[in-house]
Model the fold of this input.
Amino acid sequence: MKKNIKKKERAYKMISDRKLEHLLLCAHCDVEYKNKSTGFSDIELIHKSLPEVSKEKIDISTTILGKQLDIPLIISAITGGHPSSLIINRELAKAAEKLNIGMGVGSQRAGVENPQLVSTFTVVRENAPNSFIIGNIGAPQIEYAQKAADMMDADALAVHLNPLQESIQPEGDVDATGYIDSISKIKESVEIPLIIKETGAGISMEDALSLENAGADAIDVAGAGGTSWAAVETYRAKDKKLGELFWDWGIPTAVSTVEVCESVNIPVISSGGIRTGLDAAKALALGADAVGIALPLLKASYKGHRAVISKIEQFVEELKAAMFLVGAENINELKKSNLIIKGQTKEWLNERGFNTKKYARRIQSER
Done:
């Protein structure tokens, strides 16, 4: 009995320590893609010299999974599961509540298995009682689903997919058999909406369709071009050759956004390397319902929630400026705005069978 208890304690400590390592590496090391971009530089919104809108009256609110957000932004899953992450989640939650945006947490496995770490997650709902909060578990963790949702009083539950990270992680789980079946069972076991999200390597058209068929209520593409979790795990690995080889692996965020938006009839969140309001405007114009940001807000959180709010307010100004310049009074109109897809993003999408020309002359709705 004592041996089993000690074994569990060692496992809990390993998970918790790994969470801290991830935080420190993301905050202090170069963990972004080197030679692969998000693809948003290949997206050109068509300028309107006669926008016929007032920038002051632009409405950037949106509704996702029944929850209204004042800004089409979700603080992507970042952390939880180590004592030091409590402060980060608290500051992020305060910002989310103040601005009425969404917020996700990192994998709740540590909190479900170790009651001492529950507060690193519950601090979010305590500081954001009215916000759209997203819980988080891994695809195989069927038995954790309801516990994770209850712990957060979550509005939705994210199931994360991270085969790239697991492939590079020294203690990674590389048995991904049965994930689709597991997702279907998780869907049956919880009453709140299910969001399936990648962790930085993107989601293809084929996988998006499989996820929708498995019961996903929304998909977060979490594409390549921002934080590379292969990079994060490379720093942790003794033998760095594998991680360095796959550092830039994945589907660029702009590409994944198009592939998923054109394939499914459920809400889509575009995340992965979105750094500005202009990036967000392009993602929304490609069809996303909201965008997610992680790394820049993690770094801001170390300075407190006011720094996070300031970062997001700058993002809002950039988004509104882009909408003004294409003559979009709201998010729905932005989704109908004309744009050009060029470069490697166009090449990728054309090779995959997507018609990129149709974005250039979309019919705008009458106001």
Notes: The domain at 2-39+61-325 is CATH 3.20.20.70 (TIM Barrel). The chain is about 45% helix and 15% strand. Confidence is low (pLDDT under 50) at residues 2-13.
